[in-house]
Structure formats: structure tokens, C-alpha cells
Fold this sequence. Notes:
Order of helices and strands: HHEHEHEHEHEHEEEHEHE
Helix content: 25-40%
CATH superfamily: Vaccinia Virus protein VP39
CATH topology: Rossmann fold
Strand content: 15-25%
Strand order of the largest sheet: 1-9-10-6-5-2-3-4
Shape: globular
Number of strands: 10
CATH class: Alpha Beta
Bound molecules: S-adenosylmethionine
Number of domains: 1
Largest sheet: 8 strands, mixed
Structural class: alpha/beta
Amino acid sequence: xxxxxxxxxxxxxxxxxxxxxxxxxxxxxxxxxxxxxxxxxxxxxxxxxxxxxxxxxxxxxxxxxxxxxxxxxxxxxxxxxxxxxxxxxxxxxxxxxxxxxxxxxxxxxxxxxxxxxxxxxxxxxxxxxxxxxxxxxxxxxxxxxxxxxxxxxxxxxxxxxxxxxxxxxxxxxxxxxxxxxxxxxxxxxxxxxxxxxxxxxxxxxxxxxxxxxxxxxxxxxxxxxxxxxxxxxxxxxxxxxxxxxxxxxxxxxxxxxxxxxxxxxxxxxxxxxxxxxxxxxxxxxxxxxxxxxxxxxxxxxxxxxxxxxxxxx
Length: 313
Ligand SMILES: C[S@@+](CC[C@H](N)C(=O)[O-])C[C@H]1O[C@@H](n2cnc3c(N)ncnc32)[C@H](O)[C@@H]1O
């Protein structure tokens, strides 16, 4: 496992955008000489005829990142924020330059920062007003504010939020988003606020999933048909039992109309709080309790079909 991690470490050292723009997105790279015909995908700038050049674009279902990318405006400034490399991978594979990435759990704005770093735009919704102010400020300081619209609201509100997103998209001269990113609270694992609308305060797993499904429906409505969504989610333990939040949320995405394309297992890195004695304590608890400590989370990829068969709620 260590050897595998080392190999990936070598691979993800450079930001993917630099590599792709230097090599694969330009002509004259080490493409198959017999195959000069460009095969650009309808939803991405990647040219499949240059597939050999995309060394750092993941195509396997196991993602092992060596640490958190802390360059280009990214920082570990929010407990529970995701590693930017997830967004680098997803945005590069599933969007074109100028496309709009919609994030319904914006948090500290990782998706918005990475979207603009890669020449895309972004609309984000976040419940906590202080995070909205913080992300706006951060993006303005980075001179990226005009490509991003940030909305303070409840993403599970199916009346108000789709209209607010529409207004946001209009500000960017777009009718729909081209990629949907969802990184919800992992139920009550981290409590993000005191608000009842906060998914981390849902009273039960079922209530959490119902709220999540409402968010999935809002996302579905705002996403262009034929485009993709990425969900980052981990499981949890409760009362000595594993609660498979990842699979439950996947099912709710399907109920909202999305088709599952891939389940990726990603190592947890860059957020570790438990070091030294705490780590030992958890090892002891795992051994004693007959369970395994979470070292992974999921990145689940979905597609919004071009013809929608979703039943109205
Ligand atoms: C796991 S964090 C997302 C972190 C984000 N991907 C980042 O990198 O910073 C989940 C976020 O969802 C927000 N949230 C929870 N319930 C929400 C709701 N109903 N509507 C909008 N945002 C919500 C929380 O405040 C928190 O910031």
C-alpha cells in the first residue's frame, strides 16, 4: 500500500491543470501519429485521441492523494473542506472552459476556487452567512470574484433556491449549470451550525437523507441534461453499526433522476486531526470493537440523462 501511495504521490505533485494545458490540450504532443483526428468530448475539453498524454487524469476507481494541494488559493481553512484535487479531476473530466460549476454545499469555496483556476465559472450555495462573506472576500482578494456567484441560502428549499440559482446563472449569462458538485455534511459527524436547515442537524439518518434528496432535486433541475454530477461522501458508525451514508445518498441521487456512472474510493488525507495518542486510542477502540477505522470516502459520479424520466414529487 505504501509503495502505491508513493507512486501516486509522484503523480499528483503538480497541479493537473498545468500538465494538461502544457501537453494534452495543445497539439503536437505524443499522440498516436496514425490517429490525428481530434475526438473532443461533448462535455469536456479533453481530446480522447490524445489519451496517452493525460497521464495525471484518473481513470481508475481508486484515488490515492498524497496530501492536500495548498497552492493557487487553496488552504486548509475550514474543518471538513475537501481536498482540491477531487475538483481538479472532476472539473477537468466533465466540463469545458467557460462552463458553470454549481456547488450546493459551498463551505470554504474549494469548488469555486478550482473552477476559476481552471477557467470555468461557479455558482455556490451555502447556509452559513459567515462562510459566504469569507469566500466572497477570499475570491475578491484573489481577483476571481467576478466569475463566481455565491448565494446564502438553504439548498434543500425547493421553492426559493432554484430561483436564486437561476438569478445567479443569469448573472453569468448562463441558463443552466454544466457540472454539479455535492459535498454534504456526513450526517452529524461534524456539526456545521446551529441551524435546523443544516443537514448536519437532521434528527435521524432518514431525515438527513430526505433533506439530501431535496438538495439533489434542486441540483437536478439546475443542471443541463447530459451533464455530470460529483458527490463526495463518507460513511459513519452509530451504536456499533456501520451506516452506509454513501450508498444511501447514491440511492437518493438515483431517486432524484440521476444515473450512477462510477463509485470511486478515495483515501482520506489532508484533514487528519487525530495524531499520536488519539490515533493510538482509535486503533485500540477499533481492535476492541471489531471494526475498521475509516481511511476512505467516496466520490460518486452521476449523469443527468438527456431524456428525463423522473417522476414529479
Ligand atoms: C462538508 S462541508 C462542504 C465543504 C466544502 N466542499 C469545502 O471544501 O469547503 C458541508 C457544508 O454544507 C453546509 N450546509 C449544511 N446544510 C446546508 C443546507 N441546507 N444548505 C446549504 N448548505 C448547507 C455546511 O454549512 C457546510 O459548510
